[in-house]
Amino acid sequence: LVLDEAAAITYLEEYDRLAADMSYQYAEAAWKYETNITEETLANMTEWSLKRSDFNYREAKNASRFDLSKINNQNISRLLRKVMDIGTAAFPDTVKLEKISDLEGEMTSIYSRARGCLNTTTCLPLEPDLVDIIANSRNYAELTAAWKGWRDASGRNIKKLYPEYVSLLNEAITFEGKYKDMGDYYRSSYESPTFENDVKALFLELAPLYENLHAYVRRRLKEHYGADKFPSTGHIPAHILGNMWAQDWTNIYDLVAPYPDKRTVDITKALIDQNYTIIRMYKVAEDFFSSIGLYKMPHLFWEKSLLVKPVNREVVCHASAWDFSNKRDFRIKQCTALTEEHLLTVHHEMGHIIYYLAYKDLPYLYREGANPGFHEGMADIVTLSFQTPEHMKKIGLLDAIPGQNDTEGDINFLFRMALSKAAFLPFGYLVDQWRWSVFRGETKPERYNEKWWDLRCDFQGIYPPVERSNADFDPGAKYHIPGGTPYISYFVSFVAQFQWHKALCKVANIAGPLHRCDIYSNTIAGARLNDMLKMGSSRPWGEAMLKITSGTSGQTDKLSVAPLLEYFDPLIKWLQENNKKYNEILGWDKKNCPNFLSP
Ligand SMILES: CC(=O)N[C@@H](CC(=O)O)C(=O)NC[C@H](CC1(C(=O)N[C@@H](Cc2ccc(O)cc2)C(=O)O)CCCC1)C(=O)O
Ligand SMILES: [Zn+2]
Hints:
The protein is about 60% helix and about 5% strand. The chain is mainly alpha-helical. The site of zinc ion has 4 residues, from helix 15 and helix 16.
């Protein structure tokens, strides 16, 4: 162990170039696979995944020559630690590493090519067909067929691969002795020993908001579908909430709006009426980011992105944003459709690209979110402005906005926001509760589905419309499980984005209630946001949180639900009053899940 700081700096400069190039090669291989699913493109991606692991393995060895106790420069030691933090790549058994990559590719391929059958003759892909049925059908039986059909075609066929995937990941990640299991490694990206308890506390603080929304929506859905469809336990059937996973309830707004006679905001209709093109959706999003002084899309973005579902080949339709680590090439892959939901997703994916652009000149190792939740928070933050009636009117997608003293219109707007931002919270929280319990070995393969429905019934207060058992594998019907991508980042994002929205509206001196604030064309807000984005992961994320919130009443280096609850406060009061008026009993039997047949 020799080699002082000067040698470390030289080494890191060389590493930076090689790592960025390796990352580019892997991204290209992954892109070729996701935009053209074949045996060959899967094999090529696996090959590059192995090359990348091998590169990481070798460089971690090289970096371990430096004695960190002799390196005083915080930045150099942080970079060296990141070179050595290589996760499963530290595992020398490349045959098993290849198996992990193959299993992940195989499960993603099954998921992306699955066709859910409604009956013996009609089988449909998830996007756009089954998603559209769950979003728009109001026929209980049709909804049940789409819900069950999707799970039979996806989760059921992925089930047989998942146990080996879990045990190989755990074997690889525990090899070096730094991590207890794969969940422990996932959580380490938050650099906090109390992270797991912190998010649990945040979730419990948000429960009253969710329970009031759940009680109100349950009552309104009973009116539509009949009380006989609702068990005495208080749960809501999982398939009538407008979303295949009941994680976003916006699509049933027309069924449950507080003041239905008010003009319901129908952006999808406006997009169609105004002959919007797919490209124009991306130009509108780009215009938002450049209006606050951030960035326009580089020309390669328009040249290389895949923005519509191809007709002649299988692709991974699940939307995603890509950083090719060469400071020039950034892409979105999305099977974009002309709907409001897709317009929001366009803003989300472009939000990721803006983060990539903000930190593109940092050392390669720092080109990530301050933590994964920050990357998701940045992806979502502009939608809090974009969806306001003021903004919708500004870009001509809405002709009338609720006046200041139009409380009914205001409640309708807040309610619609809660159908996505509040309804999501228990789901955003529970996906990794399930996955962490699997990685810990608390949940064995024979109880995978039981644990899933325990959590879904307990935290979301929903239940399966058709009988489930441990022969099913419903977690496998959610992209991120076969895809192996963490999910708690979305829960963190939903908390953080409201903290940032409050801070940015404050520094931008935008008056009025938080839920009507639109930072569009406000370069002061944009500059403050950019100051945080430019940090990448160069400093612990508490400093990034402080960077955005400093000088405002929400100043903190921690996650806090206060801004989210402040944003929804008028609605929470309205829901509590309405639920009391109808003597609604909040909540559900958390320990008894209807329709689950434990063996
Ligand atoms: C190369 C790569 O993988 N890149 C990363 C980005 C990065 O890490 O750099 C990436 O593109 N990930 C894809 C993922 C896609 C979507 C998603 O999966 N969303 C969640 C949860 C959710 C729900 C509501 C909401 O408002 C926001 C999120 C779901 O649909 O359940 C689907 C459409 C929206 C976002 C994404 O963009 O986060
Ligand atoms: Zn995202």
